[in-house]
What does this fold into?
Amino acid sequence: MARELTEVGVVGLGTMGAGIVEVMARAGLSVTAVEVNDDALARGRAHIETSTQRAVSRGKLEDAEREAILGRVRFTTSLEDLSSAELVVEAVPERMELKTELFAQLDKICPPDTILATNTSSLSVTQLSVATGRPSKVIGMHFFNPAPVMKLVEVVRTVVTESSVVEDVEALAERLGKIDVTIGDKAGFIANALLFGYLNHAVAMYENRYASREDIDAAMRLGCGLPMGPLALMDLIGIDTAYEILDTMYKQSRDRLHAPSPIIKQMMTAGLLGRKSGRGFYTYAGRDSAEVVPDEATPAPGSAAEGARPVSAVGVVGSGTMATGIIEVVAKGGYDVLFQARSAEKVEAVATALRKSLDKQVARGRIDETGRDEVLARVRGTTSLDDLADRDLVIEAVVESLPVKQALFAALGEIVRPGAVLATTTSSLPVIECAKASERPGDVVGLHFFNPAPVMKLVEVVSTIATAPDVAATAHTVCAQLGKHAVSCTDRAGFVVNALLFPYLNDAVKMLEAHYATADDIDAAMKVGCGYPMGPFELLDVVGLDVSLAIERELYTEFREPGFAPAPLLEHLVTAGYLGRKTGRGFRDHSRR
It folds into this structure.
């Protein structure tokens, strides 16, 4: 049975350490808070006092509760004051030599049964443990920043950590109101191992000038529902901290995807450390400010839409869910819409689905009946591609098959008037293949809407090597008219969102395949620790394992990056017919839910 710990210590009172002290004291524990000198101690005390006062002002704490919390904390500069602690958590800077020296000192000061816990986010807990004479009493207790807010704690056991120590720390995490995931000692643990590979990939994308910092960040926020874009998150974490974590992960894994992108070290050397220095990937109003201010790399408002061709009449080819959603969005944007489907029955089905969607919005008060009728009046259907001849813009949303799309673009290239823009909604196929088939490649652009199109704000505007500048500008102008946020990228597998999302999902599958953690723990780590709306296995089951595998194969085929090779477990599940929610089973069994 787990011990109920009452006397704990925290060494290091930076942002993380001070947050851990607050969490412990809020849970009723007696806390000894240690810093290296009086100035650092005063800063740590001020951080805790400010944080708890903020909680009072927001109505989350009473004054009396705040006083009780502060009364449970003893501030000191002497490690000797930890001589009666039952558990000590170190939160000193992420340097192995500093942490091992501290653990060696604590080993001499603390009683033999005291648990020594490290808050490291990337260093080897095993290596830290052997600096003591009690490696079986050493464990990782990785809190997430800010500790009073973030619910996740990664409990990291080594091969020699006693089971009773694990039980004690798990019980403590529960008492602190945290969700714990217990895992083995591997660089990055769960959350950072998955997060930093994704962040590094986003940095490489920016470094290679594939997309702007603003577009990369907007794509991941709006396309995946993430709380922050990857480059803004790098600035928040700190460029130097990110470099140290990636470097540690690379040295252990030798995975090239963990090797820090060169620009990260260059920025670190130049002192561009992110928010804490006032400049990183973005420029901030000052040191430690969250306010982004314009700099020389900030795009001028509306610059992407300069020189656009005029558009008033739009054609849409297709009758599926995506096509119907695009028809609704374009008609709501005020455009005259003519859609083409393969049969009269499909034309009628689209019209019925469109009316049903708009009726539902009327019932929910999102539009009135007059608005609904105006949208419907702008939409007509046809079974003949020839009827699209007078359109200014034609958007195809047919099945994701290259031969089908090539045949369609060959026809559209002949039918649609010269100067009209032809757009494909493909999410994974090369846009240039469609452009070439049309025999008017300068007029062709990718317009990748996200599903459901009426809800999702993001559109990826994909320019091929042949796309005319005024065609890309037209795409941006239309997106603005539709109330969408357009991001620009070139014609490369995955564009922005899928190119960053699916390698991360693949890494999660590999982690499960290696039996490092369960699907539930991995999902919890990313949702609770990183604020993701869904865990990777929840998302894979929703997207469909077959769809995910197809995208990962496209990425691997184009980039030939060994780390992008689809995880064998994913291939086996697809072969077995376990495709996710649509078949009732994927990484989880959905048949009884």
